[in-house]
Each structure stands twice: as C-alpha cells, then as structure tokens.
Amino acid sequence: MAVHDAYLRRTPYELTFPDPRTADDLVAAVISEAQEAGVDPADRRSFVVLGAVGAFLRRLQPEGRRPEAMYDYAMLLYHAFRFARTGARPLLVTETTARALVDEGERVGSVEAPAPAGYAQLPRNLFWIQPTPTDVAEPVDGLFWSLGEEGLLHILVVAGMRDDRPGLVVVPVPEAPWGDAPSWLEARIRPEGKDFATTLPGGELDVLYSFLAAGEVLKLTARLFARVQARPDTVAEGISGSTQEERVGPIPSALPYQRI
After folding, report:
1. Deepest of 49, 160, 190, 248, by most Cβ within 10 A of its Cβ?
2. Closest Cα to residue 147, out of 180, 183, 176?
3. Which residue range forms the structural domain that includes residue 140?
4. Count of structural domains within the chain
5. Whole-angstrom distance, CA of residue 145 vs CA of residue 52
6. Where are the beta strands (DSSP E) in the chain?
7. Distance from the Cα of residue 220 to its chain's centroid
8. pTM of the predicted model as reported, rounded to 2 decimal places
C-alpha cells in the first residue's frame, strides 16, 4: 500500500471552506455574534450554540446524514474556525518522522504546542482508524488540535479523505488535561500488544499503524509536539507549486505549510 508524504495534500479545512472568502465571512460573523453575546468563541460549548454556526452547519451537513452526526460536523467546524483564526500553517509529518514517533518518541520533560490550534497531516495510508465497531477502517489524513483556556486539549481525527469519493470521516477525541501531556510520551495504552500496532489484515507487511484508543492519539500528538520543540531544525518550509507528482498523485493543498 503506497504511503504518500511528498507534499501537503488537500486538507479538511479546504474541504470545509472551498472558497477562502467563506471562512473569512464565518470567522467575522462568529466573532461579532460572540462579542454581542459576551461569550468566548474559543469555548466549544459557546461556539456550537451561535446562530452563525448553526446556519453554516445546516448547509454543510449532507442530506440523509443521521441527526447525531451534527455533533461531528460541529466539531469539524469548530476546529476549522480555530485553525483559521490562529493563522497557523499545517504541519506535514513525513513517513520517516511518523515512524520515529511511533518507535521512539522524544524524551523531554515538557511538551509545548507549536500553536494554540492547528492541523497535522500524517502520511497517507500509514495510520488507520475504525470510527465505530461496525464501520470499516479508514486511512487517517491527520489531526486537528485546539488548546482551550480551561487547560484542556481538544483533538479531532480526520479520516476517509479520498479523491474518488466526496466527504470525510471525523472522530472526536475526548478532551484531555493539557498539563498531563508529558505523561503521554511514554504511556502504555493497550493492555495487550504494542501501541499503534496495525489491526488491518496484512497490515504488518507494510508496517502500518492503527489507532484503537484515544490514548494513542494523545500519545502521538504529544510526541509530535515534543519533537517540534526539541528539534526545530527539522521543521522546514514546504515547497508549493504544481509538480508532475502533484498532477498524478493526490490533490495538492493550496495552503502554505511546514514539513517535519
């Protein structure tokens, strides 16, 4: 199974806001409404009840989706809003770095987030997740993260992004105390077997990985943040522009990004 990390692929942010002006309009509307209501739009509970958010969600959610899926779309919109407002550039995690994070991690005493909110794109087809026990496994595209003022880390796993079909799959991770992040670096998550070990039939042949528990997502995120903190020299500016591989490979992103 081919693993792709040559350039930043089209992101879930760009799927949510195909027209950048739509993102600008939503951010302005949310901030204005939040100020009038005296609430903080960075707070998830305040964000989801804003009228501008509800109106956008009704347009965003495809017809025929189950009603409870509205929460998943609300979380996608929340993270996209936070990403847009912070102006952070996506991180493209290369296969070499991703495998090092799984096998070794970074032994540091503290973990610092590169930005209050952002998106880390993982190598295509390297990590997999099964959203529910009855769903098929989907390839993970990446992770949205957002640090709240209440000291909690919010993560949204985005999977199922394929060029041959529309849409995506989102898996919200339960909020976790940011102060506990250093303990995630070496935490043992699975009661049996190795953390991140693949659950795909034959996946061990390509050394693929699976997320089975929220703790594994937190562990990988903490190790990624620790690596960026400890080795800033490994973070480079991504090269944009249309190359031959971009024309025949996955749809490229139009966003500036950083490669690690």
Report:
1. 160
2. 176
3. 1-260
4. 1
5. 22
6. 91-92, 117-121, 127-129, 138-147, 152-159, 169-177, 209-211, 236-237, 258-259
7. 12
8. 0.92
